TrEMBL record:
<dbReference type="InterPro" id="IPR023214">
    <property type="entry name" value="HAD_sf"/>
</dbReference>
<comment type="pathway">
    <text>Amino-acid biosynthesis; L-serine biosynthesis; L-serine from 3-phospho-D-glycerate: step 3/3.</text>
</comment>
<protein>
    <recommendedName>
        <fullName>phosphoserine phosphatase</fullName>
        <ecNumber>3.1.3.3</ecNumber>
    </recommendedName>
</protein>
<keyword id="KW-0718">Serine biosynthesis</keyword>
<dbReference type="InterPro" id="IPR036412">
    <property type="entry name" value="HAD-like_sf"/>
</dbReference>
<dbReference type="GO" id="GO:0006564">
    <property type="term" value="P:L-serine biosynthetic process"/>
</dbReference>
<dbReference type="GO" id="GO:0005737">
    <property type="term" value="C:cytoplasm"/>
</dbReference>
<dbReference type="GO" id="GO:0000287">
    <property type="term" value="F:magnesium ion binding"/>
</dbReference>
<keyword id="KW-0028">Amino-acid biosynthesis</keyword>
<keyword id="KW-0479">Metal-binding</keyword>
<feature type="compositionally biased region" description="Gly residues">
    <location>
        <begin position="72"/>
        <end position="99"/>
    </location>
</feature>
<dbReference type="Pfam" id="PF12710">
    <property type="entry name" value="HAD"/>
</dbReference>
<keyword id="KW-0460">Magnesium</keyword>
<dbReference type="InterPro" id="IPR050582">
    <property type="entry name" value="HAD-like_SerB"/>
</dbReference>
<dbReference type="GO" id="GO:0036424">
    <property type="term" value="F:L-phosphoserine phosphatase activity"/>
</dbReference>
<feature type="region of interest" description="Disordered">
    <location>
        <begin position="69"/>
        <end position="102"/>
    </location>
</feature>
<keyword id="KW-0378">Hydrolase</keyword>
Length: 506
């Protein structure tokens, strides 16, 4: 069978939990923290074995003691943001144990703040789709997909790695000093700006002295951060705005010539530094000030990932940052490298990364001769590209139709979480629940507030949430963009135009 098809690979649990998994009264009573995680009803479930009443209790799930005990749902109906809806009635659920006992499956930590009823609704979702589901199949675990930057973490690990590389002279002069080799979408103005600022500094293939050459650092940063030259000219052109952000791809492409392990080491050093930095700290690189120097893992999302994993969901990260930049960070929250899908590059025969991008769907692997002859290099894990890479890597669709929405809901993720317009397609594809972290990004907020099928939850940022977007979202007119980059109406999962929306969760 094809490697990478969902359900064929196994992964050891690496996310540490503090509470014993099985119903053992002496073990649980020895964990005060764990007892606090339980409601009175669940605490009674833990205590009863010591009173020899567990056979009576286990029949609450039916005549078969191997079947899970039932869990209640409650709450009144509500819209986006968790203002109601189904909710777990407890902080721990009892499921079937293959050994014949009762297994206590963790719910989300009630000590971690969520907006409105979002925690309760997430608990209910996990109960309905994890190991408490009577139809749960461990050979084909339901998939949950998380974006990474500003969804699992505060700020952007791609940015942190770019800033680290600039501060440590790790970006190399391109072959032949031809900047077109680094991206086929660089405009003539951008290439000229890079030639003027960086071209005379070192030979081709040598590290650029960006820690000391402000002009070169400024030129690269302006193109990467702003999408323009320092003179204000557009830096990229000629691309599909639903398939790729050339600036995102450029970070990966500027890493050409390195081994994957080297990029992982750069990223890991940047992550370690940024996690230790004071919240709100900034870098100055070249003459540019105010560049974010901080990364933080959101405690609520770390908890959500761990609880999903322990309840039997198959958790993945799909990110528009480079593959080998995200991998070492995802491992810190218990997601193995083989469950990370980032921007992926073609490697050379020596195992080193090239500036060409791996293909997906109908888009082939990239080739670029630096003279305008380009094949592929047109799609990354970005908007519709995230759907393609989910279909390709998680569900094994390596054919030309991976860019299209899969009709079979069993071959789509049950859950998606994101914060940006780059995430909207894979959240729309999620069959049961979608979580949006509100950063005032128009297309995803239009969908979150539209809340089709009452499946969307909106939550403010968990650290330094943004204030209300008073202007609201012009969803019906131009809040979204089409393939050309022009403003366009936003469409929901059913292809219907979304009405104007007010920002109400902040």
């Amino acid at each position: 069978m094809t490697p990478g098809v969902h359900g064929e690979r196994t992964r050891s649990r690496s996310f540490p939990r503090r509470c014993p998994a099985h119903l053992d009264a002496s073990a649980w009573l020895g964990h005060a923290t764990c007892m606090k995680r339980l409601s009175p009803g669940r605490a009674l479930l833990v205590l009863l074995p010591a009173l020899s009443l567990v056979p009576l209790l286990c029949r609450c799930g039916g005549d078969d003691p191997a079947k899970p005990a039932t869990t209640g749902t409650g709450g009144t109906g509500g819209g986006a943001g968790g203002a109601g809806g189904a909710g777990s009635t407890s902080s721990g659920t009892a499921g079937g144990n293959p050994d014949g006992g009762v297994e206590v499956l963790p719910d989300l930590d009630p000590a971690l703040a969520w907006y409105g009823q979002n925690r309760q609704r997430l608990d209910a979702f996990i109960d309905a789709h994890g190991r408490n589901d009577p139809g749960y199949d461990p050979a084909r675990r339901p998939v949950a997909v998380f974006d990474w930057d500003n969804t699992v973490i505060k700020n952007d690990v791609g940015d942190a790695t770019m800033f680290w590389m600039l501060r440590h002279d790790l970006i190399r002069q391109p072959a032949g000093k031809n900047w077109r080799l680094t991206s086929p979408y660089l405009t003539a103005a951008a290439r000229t700006a890079l030639d003027v600022a960086c071209g005379a500094l070192v030979d081709a293939g040598q590290p650029l002295p960006t820690s000391t050459s402000s002009a070169c650092a400024d030129a690269i940063l302006s193109i990467y951060v702003d999408g323009t030259t320092t003179g204000g000219a557009a830096a990229f052109e000629g691309y599909n705005h639903r398939w790729i952000s050339p600036g995102y791809a450029w970070l990966a492409q500027l890493q050409a010539g390195y081994l994957p392990a080297e990029i992982r080491s750069f990223a890991d050093a940047a992550i370690t530094e940024a996690l230790a930095a004071d919240l709100g700290a900034t870098h100055t690189i070249g003459t540019r000030t105010g560049l974010a120097a901080t990364l933080r893992i959101y405690d609520q999302i770390r908890d959500l990932i761990g609880v999903m994993q322990e309840n039997g969901l198959d958790v993945w990260v799909v990110s528009a940052s480079p593959q080998f930049v995200v991998e070492p960070f995802a491992e810190r929250v218990g997601i193995a490298a083989d469950h990370v899908v980032g921007i992926r590059q073609v490697t050379g025969g020596d195992g080193r990364l090239t500036a060409n991008l791996q293909g997906c769907g109908s888009v082939p692997d990239g080739q670029n001769d630096g003279s305008g002859n380009v094949t592929g290099n047109a799609l990354i894990t970005y908007i519709e590209g995230k759907r393609c890479w989910i279909n390709k890597v998680i569900y094994g669709d390596t054919g030309p139709n991976a860019l299209t929405k899969t009709a079979d809901p069993a071959k789509r993720q049950v859950f998606g979480a994101g914060d940006s317009d780059t995430d909207v397609t894979f959240l729309q594809d999620a069959t049961a629940m979608k979580l949006v972290v509100n950063r005032n990004k128009k297309e995803i907020m239009c969908n979150g507030y539209r809340n089709l099928g009452d499946r969307w939850l909106v939550n403010p940022m968990f650290i330094a949430p943004r204030p209300r977007y008073d202007a609201g979202y012009a969803c019906a007119t131009n809040a979204c963009v089409d393939a050309s980059g022009a403003g366009a109406p936003c469409l929901d999962e059913e292809g219907q135009v979304i009405p104007e929306q007010v920002d109400s969760v902040y």
